[in-house]
Amino acid sequence: YNLSGKKQDLKGVSILITAGPTRELIDPVRYITNRSSGKMGYAIARVAKERGADVTLISGPTNLPRPEGIKFIQIETALEMFTKVKENFASNNIVIKAAAVADYRPKNIANQKIKKSDGDMHIELERNPDILAFLGEQKGDKILVGFAAETNDLTQNALTKLKKKNLDLIVANDVSQEGAGFNYDTNKVTIFSATKETNKLPLMSKLDVADKIIDEAVTLLKKE
Ligand code: CTP
Ligand code: CA
């Protein structure tokens, strides 16, 4: 993917992107998280910026360098991501939710490091808000793009999420495949649209996947 050779075709378009995992604290030294590297979301942010869009990236903890020339917001927990997404939602035309948001958080965060005892221990978890479903309820004229990382029943799971969250597009990837998903620089995805189109892409770099996702979102935006 040639980042610098891109035409500036997204001038005047504002894109909000979320990326990376969230981190849900258990006590001052422990947390629950997931295997998201943030690479897919950061690739989307870089490509969107190269194409001339105004980009806001809300990111959980990653090891990736901060992309330049964009509005960057660092968060840790799902609740923090939710707050920042709500603050930034209104001013954007397209929202792409590549983040792997933790579905649950520990119900209580201990003030002090939890000490072990002889028996087993249990952590009570409570549901985090579904950020994307919330956005879907007040979508207005925005283009909403979600992700679905699945290990099984890819098409059915993705289409259920597309509908349930009122999305325009969902990017589905099978994370059990070699070369796709967590931590790879490549990805193999299928993009499903609310208008029943299916775009099954071959294995390609995450930057190329990002380009395709943006193409589809912008096409929908221009149709409106
Ligand atoms: N998502 C979100 N807020 C959450 C959970 C998920 O915004 N609390 C978003 C993700 O960013 C992603 C999409 O919803 O774009 C799908 O996430 P995924 O984890 O695949 O689906 P869930 O709806 O959480 O269902 P499940 O994990 O049970 O498969
Ligand atoms: Ca989930």
Automatic annotation (TrEMBL):
Residues 15-224 are annotated as: Phosphopantothenate--cysteine ligase. Its cofactor is Mg(2+); FMN. Keywords: Decarboxylase, Flavoprotein, FMN, Ligase, Lyase, Magnesium, Metal-binding, Multifunctional enzyme. The keyword Metal-binding applies. Transmembrane segments: none annotated. CTP binds at residues 103, 113, 129-132, 147, 161, 165. In the C-terminal section; belongs to the PPC synthetase family. Catalyzes two steps in the biosynthesis of coenzyme A. In the first step cysteine is conjugated to 4'-phosphopantothenate to form 4-phosphopantothenoylcysteine, in the latter compound is decarboxylated to form 4'-phosphopantotheine. Catalyzes two sequential steps in the biosynthesis of coenzyme A. In the first step cysteine is conjugated to 4'-phosphopantothenate to form 4-phosphopantothenoylcysteine. In the second step the latter compound is decarboxylated to form 4'-phosphopantotheine. This is Coenzyme A biosynthesis bifunctional protein CoaBC.
